[in-house]
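Below is a filled-in request sheet from our internal design queue. Each sheet records the structural input a requester submitted and the sequence that came back. We keep these sheets so that new team members can see what a complete request looks like end to end.

REQUESTER: design group, bay 2
PRIORITY: normal
MODE: inverse folding
CHAIN LENGTH: 194
BACKBONE (tokenized):
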């Protein structure tokens, strides 16, 4: 069997997307632990382990004092703030690259971001000849959702791990994930079925 080059892309497991954060996802801190365990025990299945990060300075209309939680949000993940840091339960040392996005834009997809050296996510995936993407993480109905849509549009067979992902409510995540499935994403369990 030919070896398939996979990358794991963990979306926005940051303090502001966990409990007590500005835009909390359900069970964020627990998922941070589970994602760390999964990444640690499965790193040899992946060519690349990637973690994205929202990092805002002046993202224009992305912030609002009366947010609609669709296009505008309460202030979150301000550059160099506590809320912008990865949640301490996420073992960030496991990741080959951190993809930072949203300095002066909404940055709702990891594909809007770059590595520390300024390489775009797409360029990195192409350079490393990644064929398949596995995605999990937080802000499921927005940032994870948009990341998965971009992955599909760029032609990557894309799996979303539903047991390693969440958002602001079950209903919103369910709606987002059903939409991703209808666009061709594979929804599966990372841990429960192993
Ligand atoms: Zn944001």
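RETURNED SEQUENCE:
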């Amino acid at each position: 069997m030919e070896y398939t080059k996979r990358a794991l892309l963990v979306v926005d497991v940051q303090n502001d997307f966990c409990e007590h954060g500005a835009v909390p996802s359900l069970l964020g801190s627990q998922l941070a632990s589970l994602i760390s365990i999964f990444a640690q025990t499965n790193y040899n299945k992946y060519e690349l382990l990637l973690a994205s990060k929202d990092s805002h300075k002046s993202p224009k209309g992305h912030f609002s004092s009366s947010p609609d939680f669709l296009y505008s949000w309460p202030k979150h993940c301000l550059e160099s703030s506590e809320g912008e840091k990865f949640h301490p339960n996420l073992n960030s040392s496991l990741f080959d690259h951190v993809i930072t996005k949203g300095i002066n834009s909404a940055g709702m997809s990891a594909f809007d971001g770059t590595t520390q050296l300024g390489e775009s996510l797409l360029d990195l995936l192409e350079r490393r000849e990644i064929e398949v993407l596995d995605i999990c993480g937080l802000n499921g109905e927005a940032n994870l959702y948009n990341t998965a849509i971009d992955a599909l549009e760029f032609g990557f067979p894309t799996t979303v791990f539903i047991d390693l992902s969440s958002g602001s409510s079950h209903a919103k995540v369910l709606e987002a994930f059903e939409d991703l499935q209808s666009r061709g994403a594979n929804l599966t369990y990372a841990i429960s079925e192993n």
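SHEET NOTES:
- Residues 28-42 form the longest helix (15 residues).
- The chain has one domain: 6-188.
FILED BY: M.R.
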